[in-house]
Amino acid sequence: MLKKIISIVCLFVGFNSMSQPKTDSLVLEIMQEMKSRVSKNVLQDPTSYRLQIIYTQINRDKQNNPSFKNYYYNYDADNYYNPASMVKMPLAFLSLEKLNEIKKPGLNKFTRMQYDSNYSGQKLLLKDSTSETGYPSIANFIKRAFLISENDPYNRMYQFMGQEAINNRLYNKGYDRLRITRQFMGYSEEQNRHTNPIRFLQADGSTLYEQDGGYNTKPFDFTKHFLLGKRYLNKNDSLINEPFDFTKHNYIPLEDFQQILQSFLFPNSVPEKQRFQIQKEDRDFALQYLSQYPSETSYPKYNDSIFYDSYVKFYFQDSTHKMPSNIRVFNKVGWAYGFLTDVSYVVDLKNKIEFMLSSTIYVNMDGILNDDKYEYESIGHPFLNDLGKAVYGYELKRKRKYQPNLSEFKLKYDKRNPSDKRASIIDVDN
User: pLDDT tens digit string along 153-175?
Assistant: First the structure.
């Protein structure tokens, strides 16, 4: 089986790319433990599943300083996958960074916000019933984006940042292969260049700070085309007999997402220009909600039978829907157009284990885009759960010269009040 996998990988050429995918023997060795029928089928044809994996091994020195080593499977930065909700993660970090730079007394992630409109299609946002104050805020957007991956919080952070600033800031941090061009609102290319006017409010309703609507005048480089699938349904549900064009969609290579999460979790492990310049309390807040469960959260109050603890923890999403009590996962996932993606930092506080695992898989057997007929449940989720188990099992046995001190990631989480009788949220756009 191992020789067969290697031969398939060596023959694979990334879509719209002549580069050779990276594959390391260690990842192939670990994947030998993936013995389910689903996993074997995927690994026999990684090209069709557009499978990419990055396993990041973390080792500590005597002073507990971490070092990172990436091991790859079928990785090609030019092999397009749709990042979907993954883009919410850098937008959350950038929003905290921007708040820190404004330096307006009283203005922080909890400050109430309201969104106006000044361009075609823009939508007002004056209230937020999911928040404790009843108003939108960057803090509540981050909660909603991380806990169950809601879409509108991403749109609102995009509008707060502005299209030009999002891309400039990420480019300046060294992520020059990416582009974030779209909100999740069905907007045209021109509409996505415009962003709403915003005001921040004091508790008495008076205006604390105002931000004008923005417009990005800078062009994007769309010379590299990304076409996928055999056919697709357009917005009128008409079947179009040609591939779906992702050329102008959001795109960030998987390794860049791994680096973005690593730089946030371990800022001293990357060059200073790559770090997000935020306050400690903001970093702690983001870490909490990257790893907190919906069942622990009061605001927003999600129905935890629908949005169970492993809902956005793909590597631990088995039939029980429960998370191991000794494990916390700091991560972001995305799913759309048949792609499932997860970039995670996994901590086992009991066994003193830590690692990062990033992967994307495409499950669209009929080759039709936008028909909502994707094999997420029958192939995608079982494969990612099997992958997570294999890497975690390897880490349990791996010898370390120095045991890590993981106290930094032993966080205090919320606890939902059992006497809270408010109706829980059962329907969201994610």
Answer: 999 999 999 999 999 999 999 99
Q: C-alpha 400: how far from its chain's center?
A: 29
Q: What's the pLDDT at 218?
A: 97
Q: Considering only CA atoms, which of 121, 150, 119 is closest in space to residue 136?
A: 150
Q: Give the model confidence (pLDDT) of 356-376 as tens digits.
A: 999 999 999 999 999 999 999
Residue 1 has pLDDT above 60, yes or no: no
Distance CA(145)–CA(151), nearest Å, equals 7
Measured CA to CA, the distance from residue 248 to residue 314 in angstroms comes to 27
Locate 50 and state its tokens.
Answer: 């557009």
Q: Once rounded to an integer, what is the mean pLDDT over residues 9-24?
A: 57
What DSSP assignment string belongs to 66-119?
Answer: EEEEEEEESB-TTS----GGGGHHHHHHHHHHHHHHH--TT-STTSEEEE---S
DSSP H or E segment with residue 287: helix 280-291
10 pLDDT above the threshold of 60: no
The pLDDT value recorded for residue 324 is: 95
| Nearest C-alpha neighbor of 386 from the set 338, 342, 328, 430 | 342
The Cα–Cα gap between 44 and 2 comes to 10
Q: Which sequence spans correspond to the domains of the chain?
A: 2-409
The C-alpha atoms of residue 301 and residue 23 are separated, in whole angstroms, by 42
Is the Cα torsion angle 256, 257, 262, 263 positive or negative in sign?
positive
Q: Which residue has the higher pLDDT, 108 or 418?
A: 108
Alpha carbons 147 and 179: distance in angstroms, whole number: 24
User: Domain spanning 2-409: which superfamily?
Assistant: DD-peptidase/beta-lactamase superfamily (3.40.710.10)
- Paired tokens of 235: 């917005």
